[in-house]
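As promised in the previous annual report, we have extended the structural survey to additional targets. Below is the entry for Ferrous-iron efflux pump FieF.
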Amino acid sequence: MRAALMAMGVSGVLGAVKVIAGVAGHSYALIADGVESLLDIVSSIAVWGSLKVAAADPNHRFPYGYGKAEPLAGLVIAAGLVVVAGVLAVQSIHEIRKPHQAPEVFTLIVLVVVVAVKELLFRWLVQTGREIESRAMESDAWHHRSDALTSIAAFIGISIALWGGKGYESADDWAALAACGLIAYNGVRLFRDALREILDAAPHGETLERIRAVAAAVPGVTGIDDCRARKSGLGWLVDIHVEVDGDMPVREGHRIAHEVKDALLTSEASVLDALVHIEPSGHGPCDV
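The corresponding structure token record, generated without further manual editing, is:
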């Protein structure tokens, strides 16, 4: 949440600077870039809100918690990237067809600073998102990488317009149009990943192997028959079938099931809850 709030503050300052510099420096690419930065504030608000909702405790009406709020926010943010790319592309084409004067030199200095800050912000948010396994945070980070890409494109376009002289005034608009394709690509990719999480796609193999290893290490467990997990917010909801000696008393099997659950909840596998099924070794399932 602190990361999302800081991203909002940085995007607000950079967005305002770029819009003002774009107007003063006669660069539509810089104005459009500034508008995108201001829109990043909306995505950061969505991330902050989704993480706050996802962290709420389960209740009678929502026994599995509110974890789906986080990938849902990622879905909305990714869709927003695609929409922004489309809007900027249309406006870039309009600017290309309209004669205008070349941008001012000082806009290049503004873009250099913007690219450096946005790239640092991107790397920090991606690392934070991966550490807490937040799809929304990673989607928000790519907003800032896309912002940096459009700034680089604007820098190249403005440079060509300045050095090319008369007839090259629209070079920055062509560069902005090319950057729109990159923004749309990132949006589609992030949309797909967030949708997979909402549809309870299986986690990476290493996640399941880690969960299996924790359960198998519990005394009395003779094997792991099946293991499934689905993402919920920043953790996993696990269904696992563990094998025990078929001749042991039901009470003993029940105790082992609780030990398996406790081991998973206290492990580093980020398990929020676990449903443990007990099976006799070499026989069919016998849920407890």
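The chain has two domains: 2-198, 205-280. The chain has a mean pLDDT of 82. These points will be discussed at the next consortium meeting with the crystallography subgroup.
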